[in-house]
Amino acid sequence: MTTMLTAVPFRDDTLLATRTDSGDVLVAVKPVCVALGLDWKSQQLRLRRDAVLSEGRVIMTLPSAGGLQEAICLPLRLMNGWLFGIDENRVRPEIRDKVIAYKRECYDVLWQHFQPPVPTSVPTTQPLSDASGGDEILELTDELSGLPYQAMRAWMDMIRLAGRLKGRNAALAMWERSPLPQLPGATVTPSAVEVEDSHTAHFAAEMLTTAEGQSVPFAAVYQAYERWCRQQREIAASRMAFSRQMRALGFVATLRPAPIRFLNVALV
User: Fold this and answer.
1) Tally of CA atoms within 13 A in the half-sphere of 85 that contains its CB
2) Biggest distance spanned by C-alpha atoms of the chain
3) Backbone φ, ψ for residue 63 (5° rounding)
4) 142 in Cβ contact with 130 (< 8 Å)
5) Please, what are the domains in the chain?
6) Helix (H) or strand (E) holding 62
7) Phi and psi of 64, rounded to 5°?
8) How many whole angstroms separate alpha carbon 238 and alpha carbon 210?
9) Nearest C-alpha neighbor of 137 from the set 151, 122, 126, 152
10) pTM
């Protein structure tokens, strides 16, 4: 297979990847090894020995200044499987933080890069901000467009089960925690929200401060929230639920220009 790879900036490195005609994103593995300072021959051996990674790896022929060269690529869906097989406690101390950063962020950066751009306008006779659910759609398109069908079915099954066992509020609370779109006009009572997600308010009180005229990207706040939840041994809410909870707490976000940002605040 001969194709051109796209350069994707990540931190101070450049990742190489491409989307195939079938829609799969393939990532060249060697540039990641070089960026992390890993021994390429050892990682090639890992790819051959692992039953799942060996089935998924693809040899691509790439044009270069010296002629055509072969590159080993992995489907994006397998990248975390390979990265998480790297034990950060066994690598050199100077690259440990970088390995951890790749495990946390590499998949999301590549996935976001190959998503279709969000339209800057939608055909409607209403202003977008007044359209029913317009803001929610703009804010969460990137997450919902990549949600696998099986994942949606699993969430729906859990929501139905919660409703049968504990009633409407339990089902709505479960929906709030899911990455599914919000149901128009359906909200959980305040007491249920407080019980389910009170740690969001604690996070905001500890990790955000008022900063007039400043703003913070939603992605940065959510990453800080996830880290805080791991430290507190809390279960992090989905990006959608977290966004709604932050607005309920009085935080103001702007949708345009992208990326989404919280206004008049700063991370501590």
Assistant:
1) 17
2) 66
3) -70, 140
4) no
5) 6-113 (no CATH), 128-267 (1.10.10.10)
6) strand 58-64
7) -150, 175
8) 24
9) 122
10) 0.44
Query: What is the tens place of the pLDDT at every residue in 55-69?
Result: 888 888 766 666 677
Q: Which residue in the block uniquely carries the two structure tokens 């060249």?
A: 28
Reading the block at residue 59, the tokens are 């040899």
Provide CB contacts within 8 A for 257, sequence distance 6+.
none
Sign of the Cα torsion 73, 74, 75, 79 reads negative
Q: For residues 127 and 65, which has the higher predicted lDDT (pLDDT)?
A: 65
Closest to 28 measured CA to CA, from 83, 73, 81: 73
**pLDDT grade for 182, boundaries at 50, 70 and 90:** low
Which of the residue ranges 63-67, 123-127, 147-151, 155-159 would you say has the lowest mean pLDDT?
123-127
- Residue 148 makes CB contacts below 8 A (sequence gap 6+) with none
- The single residue listed with the structure tokens 């020995």 is 49
7 confidence band (pLDDT: 50, 70, 90): confident
**Bridge partner residues of 69 (DSSP):** 62
Name residue, tokens 């905001």.
204
Q: Is the pLDDT of residue 138 over 60?
A: no
For the segment 112-137, the average pLDDT, to the nearest whole number, is 50
**C-alpha triplet 204, 207, 212: angle, nearest 5°:** 80
CA distance 231 to 225: 10
Q: Is the per-residue pLDDT at 140 higher than 50?
A: no
